[in-house]
Amino acid sequence: MTSAPGTAGTVVVVEDDPSIAELVDLYLRREGYRVLRASDGDTGLGIIYRERPRVVILDVGLPGSKDGYDVCRAIRADSDVPVLFLTARDDEIDRVLGLELGADDYLTKPFSPRELVARVRAVLRRTDGPKQAQSLAVGDIEIDPARREVRVSGELTELTTREFDLLAHMVENQGLVLTRQQLLNGAWGADWCGDERTVDVHVAQLRKKLGPSLPLSTLRGVGYRLA
Ligand code: CA
Fold first, then answer.
1. Which ranges constitute the DSSP H helices of 57-146?
2. Are residues 57 and 160 in the same domain?
3. What DSSP element (H or E) covers 154?
4. pLDDT tens digits, one per residue of 122-181
5. 153 burial via Cβ count (<10 Å: 0-12, 13-18, 19+)
6. How far is the CA of 81 from the centre of ligand 1 (A)?
7. How many distinct structural domains can be found in the chain?
8. Is the pTM of this model over 0.70?
9. Residues 87 and 142 occupy one common structural domain
10. What is the average pLDDT across 193-222?
11. Torsion on CA atoms 42, 44, 47, 48, rounded to nearest 10
């Protein structure tokens, strides 16, 4: 099955072997994924933080200061994005499985592109299902997107449309650090004209209305995180 380009979501591939990266890229693009490539860990992390992909495909042996294990640990510090490791040797497999890295799956080189595509789909099926349902609540706060209702400890709380959209977007992305620009675009759409300070104003309103039930941290100079 072939989908329209990019519609299946973004995959970041961190792999220094150009022939493998090219192959992975080709097959995933054919499946409708938007593929972004990096050949070292730091570049890969930059892309992952910026693009918030649906899946990360990560080679263990990478040049530079960070190998695949380091990259995975750094990803896990702020994201649940599924990580699929590419391993070349038995001792790498042992470490991927043995260390508590939070890897979702691995493939041993050489692998068939078909198997890679199947693994990516399987990882997405496993990780997408339950998370959607969970993402509608944080702490005492429950969100009903169909009715656009918010309850705090079971009590209905009135929010404006903008406040609701902002809260829903933060709850869907809970655990992730979101910049003001990401909140602006994610909650109200990229074409919505507004200043980043608009986000601060609405966040202040949400804090006022939801009180200590809203577990939102401000990361100075970065943005916000709901945890
Ligand atoms: Ca490598």
1. 68-76, 90-98, 113-134
2. no
3. none
4. 888 777 654 444 447 888 999 987 778 899 998 999 998 889 989 998 998 888 889 998
5. exposed
6. 21
7. 2
8. no
9. no
10. 89
11. -110
Centre of ligand 1 to C-alpha 41, Å, is 11
Distance 168 CA to ligand 1 centre (A): 39
Domain closes at, from 101, 128, 155: 128
> Residues 6 or more apart from 42 whose CB is under 8 A from it?
64, 65, 66
Helical (H) or strand (E) element with 183? helix 180-188
**Taking the mean position of all CA atoms in its chain, how far away is CA 78?**
9
- CA of 87 from ligand 1 middle (Å) equals 8
Confidence of residue 190 (pLDDT cuts 50, 70, 90): low
Cα distance between residue 166 and residue 173, in whole Å = 11
Ion ligand 1 neighbours (CB, 5 A) are 16, 59, 61
Question: Closest Cα to residue 16, out of 70, 82, 76, 60?
Answer: 60
Measure 173 CA to ligand 1 centroid, in angstroms: 31
Instruction: Give the C-alpha distances (Å, rounded to integers) separating 158 from 66, 139, 155, 184.
Output: 47, 18, 10, 21
Separation of CA 28 and ligand 1 centre (Å): 19
Q: Read off the CATH number of the domain in which 15 is found.
A: 3.40.50.2300
Write the DSSP symbol of residue 86: E
